[in-house]
Amino acid sequence: MDPRQYIGQTSNIHADPTAPSSSSIPPLQTFPNKKRRTTTTGSRGVANLTPEQLARKRASDREAQRAIRERTKVQIENLERQIEGLRAQRPYQELQHSIRQKETVQAENAELKRTLVSIQALIQPLLSANCAIGEAPQHSLSTSYAERLYIMFLIMRWQIAPTQENYERLPDWVTPRASQLFQPHPAWIDHLPWPRMRDKLVQIYPSIPFDNFFIPYTTTVSVNWPYDSRDILFAASGTDELSMDPNFETHLRDLGNWSLGPAFAQSHPILADTTTIRRNIDFGTTP
Q1: d(Cα 74, Cα 76) in Å, to the nearest integer?
Q2: What is the pLDDT of residues 209-251, one digit of tens each?
């Protein structure tokens, strides 16, 4: 056979239109019955490791556990140091708290001292008039002094021991006004019986100083007790303890019985409408 003729036949075989072309052959992954072999980490389990591999794995696991324990230990030590630091600050914080409490008490004591100074200024005329130095006090007490002592006693008892019981013992017209609670003012204003007068004095403070207020007030204030002043105090049987007559106390607790004289209104006309102004009445004198 002629070789050229053979080649031609070979070319004709490849050119046969009935033969499948390379482009018509589907890719490998499209064959449904063809399964790909996949590898997973589980395929190399401990059972499939060689002794050398198993020894290396165990050593690696021990090293990882040691590192975890070391990190946990370091974290615990850091937390313990932080706790110790906080504990070291606690005495300092307690000291600062004690200092603040001390300052609060000192401020309260200073306020009480100022109050006592004002009270002493009011009481001093009483001591001078009723008891000479070295003499025993007399049972007879003028109503003008008794009324002031009574109000001061009620207020001071509540200020020193601010209990509900002591507050309820105060007459309604003696209880602190809003102005007394929220505006600065001298303590002597708190011991005046008329609420409107206290409000006015707090409002205009310090336009009327205590030295200008004291004389016109103390020389004209009165509860207009219509009986003998010797009846306002009595001594319990067999003792020297003095008690106030209940009738006089009832009389004192009625603000309508309190008044000031014309001299006060002349000295402080701005306060005249905050009180009751009466002419001097010869009540409570001792024959």
Answers
A1: 5
A2: 998 998 999 888 888 888 877 767 766 666 666 677 788 888 8
* Spatial distance between the Cα atoms of 135 and 130, rounded to a whole number of angstroms: 9
State the Cα–Cα distance between residues 100 and 93, nearest whole angstrom.
11
Q: What is the pLDDT of residues 34-68, one digit of tens each?
A: 555 544 444 456 678 788 888 888 888 888 998 99
3-class secondary-structure state, position 277: strand
Question: Per the structure block, which two tokens stand in for 68?
Answer: 């975890």
Angle, nearest 10°, between helix axes 51-130 and 143-160?
170
Single-letter residue type at 139: H
Give the relative orientation of helices 210-218 and 51-130 as an angle to the nearest 10 degrees: 50
Taking the C-alpha atoms of residue 93 and residue 220, their distance in angstroms, rounded to an integer, is 55
- What is the DSSP annotation of 31-79? -TT-------GGGG-GGGS-HHHHHHHHHHHHHHHHHHHHHHHHHHHHH
- Whether residue 278 contacts residue 243, with contact meaning beta carbons closer than 8 Å, is answered with no
Instruction: Please check whether residue 170 is in contact with residue 158, taking contact to mean a CB–CB distance below 8 angstroms.
Output: yes
Distance CA 46, CA 43 (A): 9
Instruction: For residues 102 and 253, give the distance between their C-alpha atoms in angstroms, rounded to a whole number.
Output: 38
DSSP 8-state symbol, 48: G
- Per 3-state DSSP, the chain is made up of helix, strand and coil in percentages (nearest 5) of 65, 5, 30
For residue 197, the tally of other CB atoms under 10 A from its CB is 19
Cis peptide before 206 (omega within 30 of 0): yes
Look up residue 198 and give its two tokens.
């206290």
d(CA 148, CA 246): 17
